[in-house]
Amino acid sequence: xxIDDHISNxxxxxxxxxxxxxxxxxxxxxxxxxxxGPEIDVFGRAEEExxxxxxxxxxxxxxxxxxxxxxxxxGLMVEEVLDKLQAQSEMVEHLQSDPRTSEEEHFRIVLIQTxxxxxxxxxxSYLRTRLYKVEKYAAHIIATPDLRGRLSVIELSHAERYxxxxxxxxxxxxxxxxxxxxxxxxxxxxxxxxxxxxxxxxQPVFVRAKKRCQPVTLTNGSTLEMERGDIHLVRYxxxxxxxxxxxxxxx
Length: 251
Prior knowledge:
Methane Monooxygenase Hydroxylase, Chain G, domain 1, single chain, two-stranded antiparallel ribbon, Ribosomal Protein L9, domain 1, about 250 residues
């Protein structure tokens, strides 16, 4: 799976936008790049209910990097980010080629391009994090319907091809030379380390409540109540459902 295809393939369908004065178009870019609320504060000191696209992408990136298992693929949001980046790139290109664009406006365009590169870096990091999990847990994901449903079509196809190539590699290197009853790559015998790599759902994570959450039952049987903005260090298994529902975020 080529990560850059998620970003670069928009160029194939791009078109030049004409009309409008440079200052008007520049202001339009600046407004499109802004978010609806203040910058993200992971400690919850200031946060509004409505988040901009960049805010949502940042939170998804933080959740994905901190969660031990793979989370649901946000296809619509990623498409929205890519569309905005493509539209911004086209408009900046038009302004740069317009002789009416002043030196001051060229400087502002540089700032806009810098911000766009920051978003592209964030998106690439997010996709690479998911790709790492897809390859690490490929066999487990393929055998688990719930996890298969969390992947995009491209990710699932990559997981299946990756696992097939890994199986053929093991067969050529070692498995073809041992008895057939010992060639399985998915055996789970008692007292023997598992052959299929699975995420450790008991991994401790820092979690912040986005709103007041339902009481959480911990592994020791005690109950944890989380108010909005509360931060706790707990096992991921206990709060997995809150992260999937969007009621809490990992930090």
